[in-house]
Design brief:
Blueprint: E1 3-9, H1 14-18, H2 20-28, E2 32-38, E3 48-49, H3 52-69, H4 75-82, E4 88-89, H5 92-104, H6 109-121, H7 130-139, H8 143-150, H9 154-174, E5 181-186, E6 189-193, H10 196-200, H11 202-211
Parallel strand pairs: 1-2
Antiparallel strand pairs: 1-5, 3-4, 5-6
Protein name: DsbA family protein
InterPro entries: DSBA-like_thioredoxin_dom (IPR001853), Thioredoxin-like_sf (IPR036249)
Organism: Comamonas avium
C-alpha cells in the first residue's frame, strides 16, 4: 500500500530549506504520497522584528545548515535581508502564497516553496512582501495562485488556517519540536521520522522511509 508522508515546514525555516534535497527526492518518488503542511511557526505570535542580535544568530545558524546540507546562504541574503531592520521576520505572507498554490496546483507546492526559499536565501529578496511573492508565482506559471494571493478571499484564508491547524495538531500529537517534521502514515498508522538523514543524506532518508 502506498505511504503518505506529511511534511511540516515553515517557509522561513532555514532547516526546512536545508531539507530541500530530501523533499525533492520524496516528490520524485512514485511510492510515497507527499502532503505538505505549513506550521505557522514564524507567523502571528511567532513573527518578530529583525534586529542585529537576531540577524547574527540567524546567520550563525545558517552557516551550520550550509555546512551540513550544502544549501547556499549568500552574502547578498546576509546584507539585503538580515541587515534590513525594516523587514519583519514573518512567514505569514509566504505561507498564504503556498496555500494559494496548494488550492490551485497542489502538485506544485514543493516547487513554489523551493523558489521562495531560493529567492530569500540566494537572491536576497524580501519574501515578506506580497508583490515579491506574486512575481515569483507568475515566474513559475502559477497564474491562478498569483491571482488568488493578490485578492485573498474567505476560502483562501480558511484553507490557510485549516492547514496550519492540521500541522500543529500533528506536531502536538507526536511531541515534535519545531520543523522540519516528517510523519509517515500507512494502514492508518502514523510514525514520526527523524529528520537527521533528511538534512545530511536525502537518499538515505528516502530509503529509511521506504523501510518504515
Amino acid at each position: 500500500m502506498r505511504k503518505t508522508l506529511y511534511y511540516i515546514y515553515d517557509p522561513l525555516c532555514g532547516w526546512c530549506y536545508g531539507a530541500g534535497g530530501a523533499v525533492q527526492a520524496l516528490a520524485d518518488s512514485t511510492d510515497i504520497a507527499l502532503q505538505m503542511l505549513p506550521s505557522g511557526l514564524f507567523s502571528g505570535e511567532g513573527a518578530r522584528p529583525m534586529s542585529e542580535d537576531f540577524a547574527a544568530y540567524a546567520w550563525s545558524n545558517d552557516q551550520r545548515i550550509e555546512q551540513l546540507t550544502g544549501q547556499r546562504f549568500t552574502e547578498r541574503y546576509r546584507h539585503e535581508v538580515l541587515t534590513d531592520n525594516q523587514q519583519m521576520f514573518d512567514s505569514a505572507p509566504a505561507t498564504l502564497a503556498l496555500t494559494a498554490v496548494a488550492l490551485t496546483a497542489r502538485s506544485r507546492e514543493g516547487h513554489a516553496l523551493k523558489a521562495i526559499q531560493q529567492a530569500r536565501y540566494v537572491d536576497g529578496l524580501d519574501i515578506t512582501q506580497p508583490g515579491t511573492l506574486a512575481s515569483l508565482l507568475h515566474a513559475l506559471g502559477l497564474e491562478d495562485a498569483a491571482k488568488l494571493l493578490a485578492q485573498p478571499d474567505a476560502s483562501l484564508i480558511a484553507a490557510n488556517s485549516a492547514r496550519i491547524a492540521q500541522a500543529q495538531a500533528l506536531l502536538a500529537q507526536f511531541g515534535a519540536r519545531g520543523v522540519p517534521a516528517f510523519i509517515v502514515e500507512m494502514n492508518g498508522h502514523r510514525q514520526l521520522m527523524s529528520s537527521n538523514a533528511a538534512l545530511s543524506n536525502p537518499q538515505t532518508f528516502v530509503d529509511q522511509l521506504a523501510a518504515a
